[in-house]
Amino acid sequence: MKEVQNIGKRMPYAEREDYLNGLISQATEQAILQGARGKEQGASGKTRVIRMWMAAAAAALVLIGGVAITYFHQNDTEELVAEQTTTGPIDQFLDNLTDDEAQQLAYYEIEDIPEYY
Amino acid sequence: METEIQQVELQDMLKDPSQREKGFRLLMKQYGETLYWHIRRIVVGHDDAEDVLQETCIKIFSSIDSYRGDGKLTTWIYSIATREALTLLRRQTHVFQSIDSLGSTLAERLEAETPMDTNATEVLFQKALLTLPTQQRIAFNLRYYDEMSYDEIAHITDKNVNTLKANYHFAQDKIKKYIKEHTA
Fold this sequence. Notes:
heterodimer, A: mainly alpha, B: Arc Repressor Mutant, subunit A, 9 helices
């Protein structure tokens, strides 16, 4: 036990003073560098997030715009068709027919059709 | 007292972003070596100690903002170093294996890293320390080698002061018993 008391706080392994100083200095500088990189990455990370949000907003806008254009375009076509159907000469003719005239047209005989010379 | 003033100065420098790097360099110059040996005593291997020291430096520098200054700066950096060393030991265990079971592995590492001409008693003493449960070993190291108060050790290890005192005496007995058994 006396021998144990004699060794005090000595460790069975040792490292050279200059080696340890170099190691600590290297670890210190690396930590500072990492810290600076972390800040930069944090800043570029924020920029990346903003860019992503902007891209997502633009994509959403294009999608909504596309749907809206398609929707209004379809309505326009329907209106055009509707206009055409109501303004076409055949439709105007049919619209102006009375019920009797329409029935006469539906139950016509071939002989009733005047011949064109 | 001189050290206390330096600690306050260091704290102020570390809190000031324009002086942070300078303060950190001074901090590491002052405590880097003691931190290295504290880590080395936990992980035993030099390469592991080097890795843990690097991780500790990065953690300290990146978390300076979270240091409130309520406790001593040294206690705070020792806490980070201890946690980093324990993290490395945990990584070296298998699933469901406790870090306390790493004692024999660490003893083998100790022998591998010890020069041939080393005093056998020094090795025996370290081997006796490695038979202690990890947390108990860390507390013993902080008290014996770093001469910290039980309050400081309690802060670092997150343990009760009375438990630490009891553990320290228990550890002493266990070490004495081990040495007696291996020298007879």
